[in-house]
Amino acid sequence: MKEVAVAVDAGYPDNADLMIDEQGRPTLKAHKSPGHSAGALALAVAVKDRLPERSLLEILTRTTRHLRWFRHFGPLSGSDAKLADPLERYLLVAFAYGCNLGAAQAARHLRGRVSAHELSYTLRKHVTVASLNKAIADVVNAYLRLDLPRLWGEGNAVAADGTKYDVYVDNLIAEFHIRYGGYGGIAYHHIADNYIALFSRFIPCGVWEAVYIIEGLLEQESEAAPKEIHADTQGQSFPVFGLAHLFGFELLPRIRNFRDLTFHRPEPGIAYRHIDALFGEPINWRLIEDHWQDLMKVAISIREGELSSITLLRRLRHDSKRNKIYRAFRELGRVKRTMVLLRYISDAALRENITRATNMVESYNNFAKWIGFGNNGVIADNEPEEQEKAIKFNTLVADLVMYQTTLDMSLVLNQLRSERQAVYRTDVAIMSPYQEDNVRRFGDYIYDLNAPLDGMEVCLDLGEGADAA
């Protein structure tokens, strides 16, 4: 903490973006994004124009046959018979609920290939929240092995945010959301820095979203191992900062009201030449030291599944002089948040990364809702577990669409290079798998389980000179 403060103080004269007024309130100069080069934009358009148009059901059929993520599904009761054709049934269940069509609407458009009862029965008797998490992890792992996502991000950072879905008023999870307006619940997503969704869950509108930041990272079962967590302004609670540190995560939230936050002094008596006006009361290191074993016990209990981080953070949300664990978490959180604030005001690249991450999760929210086009965006089921399945199926389908789009984009990039067009890694890095124009959501819902699976194994070849711009 001392090293960070000293470095920020020494760099203040050269920090043209930062101003500190007489009251010790920092102000950062706003920067306009330089945008992307003409070559990068032209390449993005060329790739978009050449992407093969596929129906949503065709994409699900191809990726399901290739990845076989449905291997985790099966009869919950040993007395139930297995499905005669599990691939087809689970594929159609994913389509029906991931696109929010529901059993009845999907069955109507599938022209007798499956009944509404068969779809709803399979959802309730063959699919659990746990098996859905494993299926999503299979898709994420396959996506991480592709070449193109490595140009978008290293997978070591994740952004967490929620978006509101409408539900019927008379069910257990429905609450009125003041910011969004209307009754509903929140789909809370964890999105990796290479665009893929690692984990999702459905929570009530009235809860404090920050308590779900850590839980999603601990529950996701993919090979992704992010070390940075980006969140919106709610993510800057002291206990959340402290708990993230204990698990080895670096919490880097979007900080809108940083001017009004307290920078805690590393020790009493320490003064700085340029930034001293920022600092308020010092850190109580003795409090952290005295309760360090208690903090570690809490972290181990969460890691071993004996305690939920959600339950803990709910209990640690309010100040209490008799709650010594809260005070210790608060003090540790003050240390971590002060260090993040110092880095935030001194590092323009860090601010850009935080903005990019939070914008990415907003883009994913829009993309996921575009995928879940059925029923006017309303989650029709009233049971909390089935609502959770609907959100996770939507995540599964969105990830499968991203997987197929990434394969198609890789093929197009290889074609452009074979035609001797310039393709640079820096230009490819601005692209995104959140493509919509090449995906048909409507029309005849036709699928072929025996169609050739061409182009499902693609190596992106950008050549040795692709780093030059």
Structure description:
There is one protein chain. By secondary structure, this protein is of the alpha/beta class. The protein has a domain at 39-134 and 384-467. Helix content is 46%, strand content 12%. It is built from 17 helices and 13 strands. Strands 4, 5, 6, 7, 8, 9 and 12 form a seven-stranded mixed sheet that branches. A two-stranded antiparallel ribbon has the order 1-2. α5 packs across α6 and α10 (238-246) packs across α14 (324-346). The longest helix is centred in the C-terminal third of the chain and has 35 residues, at 384-418. The protein starts with a helix and ends in a 29-residue tail after the last strand. The mean pLDDT is 88.
Helix-strand blueprint:
Blueprint: H1 2-11, E1 18-20, E2 26-28, H2 38-50, E3 54-55, H3 56-67, H4 86-98, H5 102-109, H6 116-126, H7 129-144, H8 149-152, E4 157-167, E5 175-176, E6 183-192, E7 197-204, H9 212-219, E8 228-231, H10 238-246, E9 250-251, E10 263-265, E11 279-282, H11 285-290, H12 292-303, H13 309-315, H14 324-346, H15 348-371, E12 378-379, H16 384-418, H17 425-428, E13 439-440
Parallel strand pairs: 3-13, 4-8, 4-12, 8-9, 10-11
Antiparallel strand pairs: 1-2, 4-6, 5-6, 6-7
Helix pairs in contact: 1-14, 3-4, 3-16, 4-5, 4-6, 4-16, 5-6, 7-16, 10-14, 15-16
